[in-house]
Amino acid sequence: MSKDLINKILITLGFIFLYRLLAYVPVPGVNIDVVKEFFDSNANNALGLVNMFSGNAIERLSIISLGIMPYITASIIMELLAATFPGLGKMKKERDGMQKYMQIIRYTTVVITLIQAVGVSMGLNSLTGQSGQGAISIDMDTFVAVSAISMLTGTMLLMWIGEQITQKGIGNGISLIIFAGIVSAIPSAIGGTIDLVNNGQMNFLTVIGILVVILGTVGAIIYVELGERRVPVSYSRKVMMQNQNKRVMNYIPIKVNLSGVIPAIFASAILMFPATILQGSQNKILMAVADFVSPQSYTFNIFMFLFVVFFAFFYASITFNAKDISENLKKQGGFIPGVRPGESTAGFLNDIAGRLTFWGALYLAAISTVPWLLVKAMGVPFYFGGVAVLIVVQVAIDTMRKIEAQQYMNKYDTLSAVGL
Fold it and tell me: Hey, what CATH class is 1-183 in?
């Protein structure tokens, strides 16, 4: 392993460690025991799911309680606008325009974070513990201001950490932050399961059944994520002679899941927002709506299935541009056997990508909902969904691929340096 790769891995681990440290920095003026008591009693609903994605930062009401979700929400809004307005879509494709595009996302993240931070701060005013203690220990107006500034700072730090990991480390920084948050909650989840078994609330056969579901889910994810359709490509004799000392790829790889983990993250962010806002309401109508959209409800998972399918097609249409591929192929002197260059090639690739995206979308939707249905049928008293497993496995595979690509790049640079 090269020194450059080791440095990138260490930088990535260092930033993840910084992220975990921030999860233990509470917002000033909060009674943490009261907040933790509240989240312990809501571990099986939307609040528990949001807390898991934050790496248990919310139950400590740390400065990163809102996590990276405001940034993801801002990204969703911008992706939808870029797909709707051609001018914004063109800006995203240009190098200088991409910087402006990312800047707009950052400003949008600030606005969303402030709105959510003020909402959370005001909601804590009515929260009391079993002993009658309030969740806020200082003046309400002061707390709202301090809390909003603290959470905004935390979210901006997370966004900066994600960008630094992407630029200087290994892998996608935002995905790795979510990955680290989920993984950090695994030890407490295992401990909680052991307690349930010891207390007689769960039998050993149920634990084995959960392990089978988890292993089956992981196996299915790995199998599909590594699957791809390789479209054969031929090059003219002139191109092959010019590149006889270089490796020329003779196929176009098209993944079964072109959209990656983004659809599941987008769908979760959208569906958890109303469920989180409505949680804890004393109004009977709002309580009924909260139960209706709770992660433990069938309604939530039906919408999850539909949203994941929608975002899978939407994001695949953005990430896979058959027209650009066909034009680049034509410039390089390559062609798909039996298909005319240009528009025919683009149409051919679009047809293949469309079929793969259909099955890929169904796979993502099934992984996001079926494990919950199986665990629900076992009578398990806590929430377990495939979204967390999907994110962990996909991010792990993506990071391993980037490490492998970096190793190949280092080997190529070494061979070039010695003149081979």
Answer: mainly alpha
